[in-house]
């Protein structure tokens, strides 16, 4: 999907989002675009086998607000690298469930000149940090992410992505796919209140590159399920700020047989 100078808005409330990806490639390139998707009481099912999806976004704004959600993150035999440079990531989640299963994946996240704020209260956190500044505030939340043999690449250039969905069901199944997401000059805001995030990753690669981008995702009373098998996720972020506020949430990060299970920060 290549989009230039477009507006895409997606509002999701009381919705269920299921994403299964197996051996697929997803590439989305967006330049100077705004994506707004408003869906009320709708069902979206997307099954893709042996497909390529590429998403490139530069100078974009992505807003994600999630309250009362479940996020679970389990990682086995994986490499986690987070690179973020001068970027802002805000995630707000209200009454939503996000499930991401990753097996045989590698996660790389490098952060340079970025600010990461994570506040956690009444939570369980297992993390290894070297030479980094991390603020995690989480209250009664659970984060789980499972991905199996998948590659996810997202590149965003000068785009704004807003996803609001009300009483909708979104199902996306992808097999043999690669997802690439690169974001430059973007801001990502993710606020999570009373949410559970489950992330299980086994032998997977996740790369997130974001440069001067804003990502905002607001989700209310929604369920997001993302199952990825045989995928690689690459997310690089440069010149970005990552803010993650979670209230009444539980964050569980288990890493078994990790090749390079590290969380590094090179910046402010």
Describe what this molecule looks like in 3D.
- The chain is an all-beta fold and 268 residues long.
- The protein has one domain.
- The protein has no helices and 30 strands.
- The chain has a 26-stranded parallel β-sheet that branches.
- The chain starts with a strand and ends with a strand.
- Give the topology string: H per helix, E per strand: EEEEEEEEEEEEEEEEEEEEEEEEEEEEEE
- Please work out how many helical segments DSSP would assign: 0
Structural class: mainly beta
Largest sheet, strands/sense/barrel? 26 strands, parallel
Tally of extended strands? 30
Which bin fits the share of residues in helices?
under 10%
Q: Oligomeric form of this entry?
A: single chain
What sort of overall outline do the alpha carbons produce when their principal axes are compared? globular
Name the beta content range. Answer: over 45%
Jot down its keywords:
single chain, 268 residues, mainly beta, 26-stranded parallel β-sheet, two-stranded parallel ribbon, disordered C terminus
Compile the SSE list and pairings.
Layout: E1 2-4, E2 8-13, E3 16-22, E4 26-40, E5 43-49, E6 53-58, E7 61-67, E8 74-76, E9 79-80, E10 86-89, E11 91-103, E12 105-108, E13 115-117, E14 129-130, E15 134-135, E16 145-147, E17 150-166, E18 169-175, E19 178-184, E20 187-193, E21 196-202, E22 204-207, E23 209-211, E24 214-229, E25 231-234, E26 236-238, E27 240-247, E28 254-256, E29 260-261, E30 263-264
Parallel strand pairs: 1-4, 2-4, 2-17, 2-24, 3-18, 3-24, 4-6, 4-17, 4-19, 5-18, 6-19, 7-20, 7-24, 8-21, 8-28, 9-22, 9-29, 10-27, 11-16, 11-20, 11-21, 11-24, 12-22, 12-25, 13-15, 13-27, 14-30, 17-19, 17-25, 20-27, 23-26
């Amino acid at each position: 999907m290549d989009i230039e100078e477009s507006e895409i808005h997606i509002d999701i409330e009381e919705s269920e989002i299921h994403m299964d990806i197996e051996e697929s490639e997803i590439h989305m390139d967006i330049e100077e675009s705004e994506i707004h998707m408003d869906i009320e009481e709708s069902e979206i099912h997307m099954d893709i086998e042996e497909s390529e999806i590429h998403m490139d976004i530069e100078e974009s704004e992505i807003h994600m607000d999630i309250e009362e959600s479940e996020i679970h993150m389990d990682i086995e035999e994986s490499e986690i690298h987070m690179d973020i440079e001068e970027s802002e990531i805000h995630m707000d989640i209200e009454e939503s469930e996000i499930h991401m299963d990753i097996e045989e994946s590698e996660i790389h996240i490098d952060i340079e000149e970025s600010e990461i704020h994570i506040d956690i209260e009444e939570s369980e956190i297992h993390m290894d940090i070297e030479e980094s500044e991390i603020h995690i505030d989480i209250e009664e939340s659970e984060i789980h992410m499972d991905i199996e043999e998948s590659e996810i690449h997202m590149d965003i250039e000068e785009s704004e992505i807003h996803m609001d969905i009300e009483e909708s069901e979104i199902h996306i199944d992808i097999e043999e796919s690669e997802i690439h997401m690169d974001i430059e000059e973007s801001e990502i805001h993710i606020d999570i209140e009373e949410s559970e995030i489950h992330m299980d990753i086994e032998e997977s690669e996740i790369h997130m590159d974001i440069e001067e981008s804003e990502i905002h995702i607001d989700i209310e009373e929604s369920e997001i399920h993302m199952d990825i098998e045989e995928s690689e996720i690459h997310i690089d972020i440069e010149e970005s700020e990552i803010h993650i506020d979670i209230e009444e949430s539980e964050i569980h990060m288990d890493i078994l047989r990790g090749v390079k299970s590290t969380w590094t920060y090179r910046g402010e």
